[in-house]
Amino acid sequence: MKSIKNKLNLLKTGALTLFLLTGTASGANAQTTISGQVTDLKKQPVANANVFIKDSYDGATADAQGKYSFSTSETGNMMLVCSMMGYGTVEKPVALNGGTLTIDITLEGKVQEFDVVVISAGTIEASDEKKTTVLKPLDIVTTAGASGDIYGALKTLPGTQQVGESEGLFVRGGTGAETKTIIDGMAVNNPFFSSVPDIASRGRFSPFLFKGTVFSTGGYSAQYGQALSSVLVLETQDLPERTSSTLAVSSVGVGGGHNQLWKEKNMSAGFDINYTNLAPYFALVKQLPDYVRKPEFTGGSLNFRKKTSETGILKFYGYFNLGDLALRRQDIDSIIDYKSLFDLKNDNVYTNLSYREYVGRWRVDAATSFSHNRDRIIFDADSISAISQLSQGRVMMQRGLGIRSQIRFGGEYQYLVEDGKYNQYAYGFFDNYGSGFAEADFYFGPKIVARAGGRFESSSILAKTCLAPRASLAFKTGNNSQASVAYGDFYQKPERDYLYTPAGIGYEKATPSPSAWKRITKSTASC
Prior knowledge:
Helices cover 10% and strands 54% of the residues. The chain has six helices and 34 strands. Strand 9 and strand 10 form a beta hairpin. The strands form seven sheets. Strands 18-19-20-21-22-23-24-25-26-27-28-29-30-33-34 form a 15-stranded antiparallel sheet. Strands 11-16-17-14-15 form a five-stranded mixed sheet. Strands 1, 4, 7 and 8 form a four-stranded mixed sheet that branches. The longest helix has 29 residues, at 2-30. The chain is globular.
């Protein structure tokens, strides 16, 4: 009996050993070995660079010659990431199917942004995100006097004007209507709360919705149009880092929200809702305007984000707001001390759906949006109703040429409907607007970079088309200085009040040709 047990134990041990050896052999066969060299733009080795498979623990550190090598048991399509302090992070798609891969990586110096100039390790750029001002959410909420408002923070920058009685971004002498807001490539029709006489309204959107705010005061890319002075480009957040909830209580209102990140970290959804009533605050702090009904707002938003692949993402953002207020203001045309009534009720909806994916070497960006705004106004004995709706779609494709040069092209379509009523009189119009654009960045070495492109636009209500060429050139004049020149044509349809009777009018046009010289030190910039 004891002999039989010993034989059974021996068989079990042998089977277990065979199983482990088989499993080990299978695992070894499935492993992929990745090796290569990390260099900079001058083909010099970059030591101590981190090279790893994204979302895994497999990777290595480059040696003094910039060479690296490691094995991974991951399989399928993954992303190889290379990062190093002082350099931009590089991601490359790799197919892990066993065997050996040789992948050489070129790192470029990470640009450093000093207001409107960019100087990095021997390189300089003329692209929008490098020659413009880039603000993060914390930059905005910590700007003195901005009160957490994106537009309030931007008004403190050089080239903009402080206008206290009207909303909008006034750039280099232009009107507030000459600066447009773009979210994920889509124009926002009503980015501010509705106008109140002699009082500047805030922007509708929280800075924490966006991962970056790009603003230019001296021309902008051919990707965008219908703005004589400038564009404010906002890009919404991708997937959050973690699940989170918020609750806010203040003297002017309450609010809360929740963002849920799925455990696979490839999808998230969230919402927030808020209620604001300024009556308690106005009771403590007396206001110069004579409010009959204190401002009251109810708003909220929804968001959904889904990774469709290692390089693709689908994002949805929806926003709504209801506003209600009334005030009396001094009538300057009255010979007696008479105050006219201004009563405003507003409802606003904005939705945006965007998709980004890489197809081969091409990056594809597609987006669509819809916005609705309705103002119901009582001005003394007159009743005014105004409804504005904008539907739009946009597609852009871009790819790299060499190390830093790029080419991009695309088009967009907008359908605008304006309906209004003044007492018993109805009025309105609609417009079909289409555009196409093409643009390229040319990198001529570490000291010169240029951008050239153009934009074609057509409007049905104006029955006119236009072609807008644009170009910019930047070149280094020293280790910490640069010179730049630019030229471009910028067109814009007249404001909507002029479009109800559009006969005989055309596009507004601006042709700025700014030039500048900038020098950066550790603490100052001069020009």
